[in-house]
Each structure stands twice: as structure tokens, then as C-alpha cells.
Design a protein that fits this description.
The protein has ten helices and eleven strands. By secondary structure, the chain is α/β, with parallel strands linked by helices. The strands form two sheets. Strands 3-11-10-4-5-9-6-8-7 form a nine-stranded mixed sheet, with helices on both faces. Helix 6 crosses helix 9.
Length: 326
């Protein structure tokens, strides 16, 4: 395989070959195991956990490469997911207790009131600077935020309970316009400060999934990658991977109504029911508290911060400054 590549070194063809080979080997073993499992059990619904369950590229192919036609990967599918699975096994299989709970959303972390958000803003440097701070009702909040995203602004979006697991799923997210091909590089270089090949996710209204992707099976926890329909790839180039797929999050009105409303307002403005979504952080854990969101916003080139019902705009700034729009 040759020497290890340092983060600041270019990606060479041998690196691409090694990554593709390892992915192909993983998929061959995984699909063989799953096919054997289905034949032994006769079940067509599959639950996955463990770190391999975060391999969205493989997960998205399960429908085509195995007999399973339902796939569930819970939002914290690493070690935490294995612990939950073990607890479920004892509760249902050993103790024989009835099933009373289905994890339909990942929002199990802390939440903060509007009063706590106001207090955090007043304690920060935002209170004594030229930032524009506006508190809005929910309907207007979605419209104003969608307008900022459609205008090329990068938005920190902090709402409700934090997500459980490693994925930002619409409550601790950085959002941007998926129609701008250059947005992926801008986010990696000027906000996230990571390798330029790292992709981002499309958050899409659940009811529009089949219009943009070649599969319509829900992916609420960003655990599946589907091929973007060829005719739609030019509409959402920023979150479309180099292989033509997207690690999508399907957003339903019943599960996250505020995030759904924001995407719907963006669709009303642009005709595209998708926003680019990445985790609200910069080389550290995803923000949890309002203070952490404010600190990340201030030290990066984000343009707008939405904390609860409050919109904070930086004075005359844009992450797109100096960037050529294609």
C-alpha cells in the first residue's frame, strides 16, 4: 500500500485504488453474510448496528444485493447502538416483554429554552458588536432562513434537542445551498477545515425523495446512500458524491416539523426541496449548548446563526466572498 498519506498531502491514484478495493471487499463479505442470514431466518426486515453500519455506501446497496427489502440503522449505530441492541434483546427475547417503543427520531439530547438562548447571546461578544440580532415567530423564521441559504449564505442551525449519535440531523447543523457546486469546497476549506474530498449530505423532504434519488425508501438517520437521478445531479451538485450518490437524510413533517418547514420554504424559493447539511462543528465534537454554537459561529466564516427563534447575522460578511460562482 505504500507510506501512509498525511492529511495535508494530495490524494494519489494509489490511495483511491486502496480505498475502492477495501470498500469492494467489505461489500462482498457483508452482502454474503446478509444473504445467508436472510435465507436462514426467512425475514425480509433487517436491523443493523456496529460501526460498519455507518458505511452508507454499502447500506444503500442492500436492497439490490440481498433479499432484504427493509433496512433500519438506528442513529447511534456504533458502540452505543450495540448496547441498545443488547438491552432490547434481553427485554424482548429473554424477559418476553412486549414491544412498546420504536426509535423514530434521534433527538434525545439536551434542549434549551428561548430564555437560555437570550442569556447566552447577552453574555457573548455578539451583544456588544454590530451583529444584527432578530427574534422571529416560527413561520417567518423558516422563510428568512431559507432566503439566506438561497442567497448563498452559510447558516448555523441550532434547534430543539441535540441528536443522539454522530450525525447532524437538522437540530445541530450547518446548512448551505446545494445548487452551488463550489459550496462543498468552501465549507471544507473555510468552515470545516478538512480534506476537500470529504462529502456533505442532502437533507430532502421525505415526500420528494423518489423525485431526486433512484430509491425512495426513507433514510431519516443519514445511514443510506442512493444514486442521484442523472437529470437531477446538476440541480444539487454540492452534496452529490463523485460516484453520483448522496448520503441523504429524508425529513418528514411529523418527526422534525421545524426543519421540514425550512426545507419546504427553500423549495418554494428555488424549486429544489433539498438543503446541504453538515454537522455544526469545526474539528471538534458537534456543538450541544448555545454557548458552543455561538463560539463556533464567531470563529468561523459562517454568515448567519439561527438559535431557536433568534437569527444572528454577521455585519456585511459572506463565506462566498472571494469565491467565483459557477
Amino acid at each position: 500500500l505504500g507510506p501512509t498519506r498525511a492529511p495535508d498531502q494530495p490524494v494519489e491514484q494509489r490511495h483511491r485504488n486502496a480505498a475502492a478495493t477495501m470498500q469492494a471487499c467489505l461489500e462482498e463479505v457483508l452482502f454474503d453474510l446478509l444473504t445467508t442470514l436472510q435465507r436462514r431466518t426467512g425475514h425480509r426486515a433487517l436491523c443493523l448496528a456496529g460501526s460498519v453500519a455507518f458505511n452508507c455506501a454499502a447500506n444503500g446497496k442492500i436492497f439490490d444485493r440481498t433479499p432484504f427489502d427493509q433496512v433500519y440503522v438506528q442513529p447511534a449505530a456504533g458502540d452505543a447502538g450495540l448496547a441498545v441492541g443488547a438491552a432490547y434483546y434481553v427485554y424482548h427475547q429473554v424477559l418476553g416483554r412486549p414491544r412498546t417503543f420504536v426509535m423514530e427520531h434521534p433527538y434525545w439530547g439536551p434542549a434549551y429554552s428561548q430564555e437560555q438562548i437570550r442569556a447566552a447571546l447577552e453574555r457573548s461578544s455578539i451583544a456588544s458588536s454590530e451583529f444584527q440580532v432578530t427574534e422571529l415567530p416560527e413561520e417567518q423564521l423558516a422563510k428568512e432562513t431559507a432566503k439566506e441559504i438561497a442567497g448563498g449564505k452559510i447558516v448555523g442551525w441550532f434547534q430543539g434537542r441535540a441528536e443522539w449519535g454522530p450525525r447532524a440531523l437538522g437540530n445541530r447543523s450547518i446548512l448551505a445551498d446545494p445548487r452551488r457546486a463550489e459550496m462543498k469546497d468552501i465549507l471544507n476549506r473555510r468552515i470545516k477545515h478538512r480534506e476537500v474530498f470529504r462529502p456533505f449530505a442532502p437533507s430532502i423532504l421525505e415526500e420528494a425523495t423518489g423525485e431526486y434519488f433512484e430509491k425512495a425508501y426513507p433514510s431519516p438517520f443519514m445511514a443510506l446512500a442512493y444514486a442521484v437521478r442523472p437529470e437531477k445531479r446538476k440541480e444539487i451538485p454540492a452534496p452529490t458524491h463523485v460516484d453520483g450518490t448522496g448520503r441523504l437524510q429524508t425529513v418528514s413533517r411529523s418527526v422534525n416539523p421545524r426543519y421540514w418547514r425550512l426545507i419546504r420554504e427553500f423549495a418554494n424559493l428555488t424549486g429544489v426541496p433539498v438543503v446541504l447539511n453538515t454537522s455544526f462543528n469545526e474539528n471538534e465534537p458537534i456543538v450541544c449548548q448555545p454557548e458552543e454554537a455561538i463560539e463556533c459561529f464567531l470563529r468561523t466564516k459562517m454568515d448567519v446563526l439561527v438559535l431557536g427563534n433568534t437569527i444572528v447575522r454577521k455585519p456585511a460578511s459572506s463565506a462566498l466572498e472571494g469565491e467565483s460562482l459557477r
